[in-house]
Predict the structure of Chorismate synthase.
Amino acid sequence: MSGNTLGTLFTVTTFGESHGPAIGCVIDGCPPGMTLSETDIQPELDRRKPGTSRHVTQRQEADTVEILSGIYEGKTTGTPIALLIRNEDQRSKDYGNIVDTFRPGHADFTYWNKYGIRDPRGGGRSSARLTAPVVGAGAIAKKWLQEQYGTRFHGGMTQLGEIEIPFSSWDFTAQNPFFAPTEDAQLIAKLEAYMDDLRKDGDSIGARIDVVASNVPVGLGEPIYDKLDAEIAYAMMGINAVKGVEIGAGFACVAQRGSEHGDELTESGFATNNAGGVLGGISTGQDIRVSMAIKPTSSIRTPKRSIDKQGNPVMVETFGRHDPCVGIRATPIAEAMLALVLMDHALRHRAQCADVT
Amino acid sequence: MSGNTLGTLFTVTTFGESHGPAIGCVIDGCPPGMTLSETDIQPELDRRKPGTSRHVTQRQEADTVEILSGIYEGKTTGTPIALLIRNEDQRSKDYGNIVDTFRPGHADFTYWNKYGIRDPRGGGRSSARLTAPVVGAGAIAKKWLQEQYGTRFHGGMTQLGEIEIPFSSWDFTAQNPFFAPTEDAQLIAKLEAYMDDLRKDGDSIGARIDVVASNVPVGLGEPIYDKLDAEIAYAMMGINAVKGVEIGAGFACVAQRGSEHGDELTESGFATNNAGGVLGGISTGQDIRVSMAIKPTSSIRTPKRSIDKQGNPVMVETFGRHDPCVGIRATPIAEAMLALVLMDHALRHRAQCADVT
Amino acid sequence: MSGNTLGTLFTVTTFGESHGPAIGCVIDGCPPGMTLSETDIQPELDRRKPGTSRHVTQRQEADTVEILSGIYEGKTTGTPIALLIRNEDQRSKDYGNIVDTFRPGHADFTYWNKYGIRDPRGGGRSSARLTAPVVGAGAIAKKWLQEQYGTRFHGGMTQLGEIEIPFSSWDFTAQNPFFAPTEDAQLIAKLEAYMDDLRKDGDSIGARIDVVASNVPVGLGEPIYDKLDAEIAYAMMGINAVKGVEIGAGFACVAQRGSEHGDELTESGFATNNAGGVLGGISTGQDIRVSMAIKPTSSIRTPKRSIDKQGNPVMVETFGRHDPCVGIRATPIAEAMLALVLMDHALRHRAQCADVT
Amino acid sequence: MSGNTLGTLFTVTTFGESHGPAIGCVIDGCPPGMTLSETDIQPELDRRKPGTSRHVTQRQEADTVEILSGIYEGKTTGTPIALLIRNEDQRSKDYGNIVDTFRPGHADFTYWNKYGIRDPRGGGRSSARLTAPVVGAGAIAKKWLQEQYGTRFHGGMTQLGEIEIPFSSWDFTAQNPFFAPTEDAQLIAKLEAYMDDLRKDGDSIGARIDVVASNVPVGLGEPIYDKLDAEIAYAMMGINAVKGVEIGAGFACVAQRGSEHGDELTESGFATNNAGGVLGGISTGQDIRVSMAIKPTSSIRTPKRSIDKQGNPVMVETFGRHDPCVGIRATPIAEAMLALVLMDHALRHRAQCADVT
């Protein structure tokens, strides 16, 4: 209940700090009999890992995953699956200047106040590095959902700062460093130039990320407090730096009339998808559509006013290696989170409603 | 785990259907020794109850609450507090025409598919009527937080359809039927006319609601999966009809730079509140600021295409008594939800960090 | 997490005090589509209710149950089922003399120290009266298990004080006031005389209760911490006055050799049942066999030394209406607890292992 | 919810199999600021580890623990503490003959039926080896409870087969290979001879283990379903091979009268301890006294009838390295379990009752 476990029936309990010896997680509740090895997990970790372009942190971490348990002769056994990722590139000295001060917009201040002690090396446990085990666990959920229902996940950046990225196709997200769903080379060049300028300025920027799950079975979600959309909102808002979450039409629904918003049903399915695939907290079988706002990184070289532990005023500039836009690497994380929520609810659904046909 | 319990240490388990004999909840984990009676709870229920203006449903429910347990000589004993509200005004015949069809945008379709059976009378369990017990429980959380920390809750409507409602003061929300935080009589008149037109059209409309908690202690929230903002997003997205949630700057942060977004700290506190009172998932001590999008009611008189249980195409018009804008009565619900989340995390915090000074 | 909810997927949250307005529970997780009404529940409550013979408390409570939710047209809908039982016969004045003192062997002392406040009327929440909602919930679990797997429950008293009751058949437990599984009329007469003497002495006595579940599917139970036998031990030890629990051979296994204890498997099944139907925390498909020790009632007329709230020495005699042997009415409670544990694990099993054949 | 997590607020999630690459656990909820290193944990692991005398399994495992997270500059930070123990001495070939058959009295049969797949190497996850991470976690709980309340834990064997071991003092448990609380050298010699004979016979034997916690604060335990004694029963029955649990007087209470059983209170405390330190599910402040029955090891050389996976009759003899009496190494495990339950409830108590004085 200290908040390091995600999920109810398919649970992920993570551990580790950015600059400790290792990070990892224990995944509990995976059904037995599924083929699984590190080769199913590593590709997802590779999508998230640092150092893949000049627009993300230059920390060098291979993020090589080791499965410690839960597999026998290449198959899951129904027992916990532990994933271990050793930390390799810790330059803790980079963080010397923030040991006693609080970065504006960062968890430094709140961890210190909550616990009375704080591991300042790389942000300790508050580091976005802790999303790696989640991505690893998400790879398992994705595989299971794909095998059971043919569920597929897609995601990408749809806005960087003030630059909107019109959606073209998910096919293109792997072809640029931003997970942008566009083949517009000029737009990509514009995004690259934007990031280069930002880096020169020692500043950071926000982003909008969209994720979609297709081929989701109807009936997932538990009313009235573990609604599927409520759990998705929880999962997404729990990703570092997320400040807003929308399902389907999202905030646009404020100005919609009921005659416009409600998705009509026809013999061949729903005519529109304002609901984003969830009605009354339960999946409709349509695509689950989620959008989220990611704030700019708080660790920037631009000096800002802050205080130290004693409450004295100081100016803070953060050196070390940081992502100037944490939104860039957020796509695989958001996909993983969505997969984890869906798998958890798939198991919950069959517990109570196994007999419903 | 079937989703009818909210919270971890301060839990609310609700029961009931819109047109069943009663609705209510069991509240567990309330600390002992707090003075409590129905008079602490009824006023909050009265803020939410139907029939208070021509702009909401005309169903007549006094929503009179009875405390069944957990109180001895006027004080909480640390044992479960059960609240009971009898349903009084059930005109189930109003719903005869939707027994076999699915209202576009409504949970009818998903409940049917999930459970294979559905109580269609007034929406059954999916009815917003089920927020009444939550509001009752929230009154207890509000009282406790007020006594412990002086925490106060405010909320109101900041947009109705396309009409924005500029914030003036929370003092005015009780003086108009919309919980609008404005004393602008012309604007209120405009909102009333807007609603009257809508009702004549047999249509419905969305709204934006903001809620704020002040005097929140620093340190509440559990990283890294039960972050305070993640739990708030879960709670708010779990309210009927909510499609989007923002904390602090929300989606505006997409276009913000780090140099702008990160709230500077000074000797006299934070200089701004883009964070909305949460950093790294933990409360900063600033106001918690939440905004949410509420979709238009799906039960409207305007005919829409749908299908029946056999999959045949039908046209659906919904009669009976419905709120043309569920956002109008959402304010006390959202305040209650926020109070429940904060109280839960206050108890969680003192479990683990009781010794931190 | 304040301990008023039993179960993980099939949960029972109880509320109420012995002399408050009502007791009851919310049952969550019941699969949809099962026929259910009060007539399925009342007979089990009648087995437990007070006043059925001169050997139990003479408090007059009809224990009439009302279902408040979760049923539509006679069938469960998958939503919470709330049960309400109004208290009728509260003679709270009987308890006046124990308001400020602690009965030896009673929860008076610990509730006072834990909460700093205590409802002394009839023991408040610590009263065995609070097992009534559990028996009601157990009736639902029994019905579901019977329909799904043909599971049957039996139980009875196998020892009263020093008098052992040799097992003859479960068929006889309904034919005497002790739930004794014997047709030996002389033995029953001996038990009656024993109880009459005890009552004259103003004293109480312990008992041993056995319960058995037959036709339990193989595979229920979650290693390695929610083992089926661990959960049964938790459930049984949680019944008021239980001080010991055994599964299968129980304490007799201390003096057994492995060559004797391990139940051999043959083509036609297990040859013996030392395991009590559980191996490695998972059901074997054999009868689940549980035995428990129930301490003598602490509320007795015999004077004993105690202290008052101020710590001053006092002599305590308890008047009012009490069971001289709480073990007598324990059988339906223990059966209910066993049914609740099995149903919970049946749902848990199908969540994770639905595909195992 | 798949049963690999122990506790509610202070949780231990274990992973690993007997012959996999590693075993370990994630401990969540430890309060921040406590000095902690491997040297606090290793001594407890050494008490449990195999190969310490000729009466236990000869498998050679150093059980060296590595802390992977949750510590900064020698102190706990409030974040998860992961413990890793690499498996070193896996002779999986020893188990070749039980891959397709089920040992009588062993979890082989039930794991196979539950999951449809089973790691047979050394019992896989059902191995008592998985108690090592629990002992590691228990060391942390012991340290915290000692620092907070001066709580101390003792335990030992009080019966081996039919040989009773009269209690002399806990001081002697470290001076013999059985954790026997006696200085009677002749009795120890008798136990050694008994075990030597047993080993020659290729058989195994049961044992009784007692554990005691002293200096336990009053008020721990949550009525009415997470009673302290219910949780202890759950924890102890969850230890491999336990078939019975008693608190205080245990089964002896069946033949006790209320006038004898109820512990009188005097100005200087309780006069007796039939309750075993728990009344109404809440600690009284007296010693918590627990006793448990441990069945004989099911892996024995003596041939027994069984079946193979296809249901054909076979004779099973188990070779490999096994404890002829698993009760011998059970003492540190039972102490650890008791410590984990108490720490969990200490945190739960301060969540709800922090203000009670």
DSSP finds seven helices and 18 strands in chain C. The mean pLDDT of chain C is 95. The longest strand of chain C covers residues 152-160. The two ends of chain C are 35 Å apart (CA to CA).
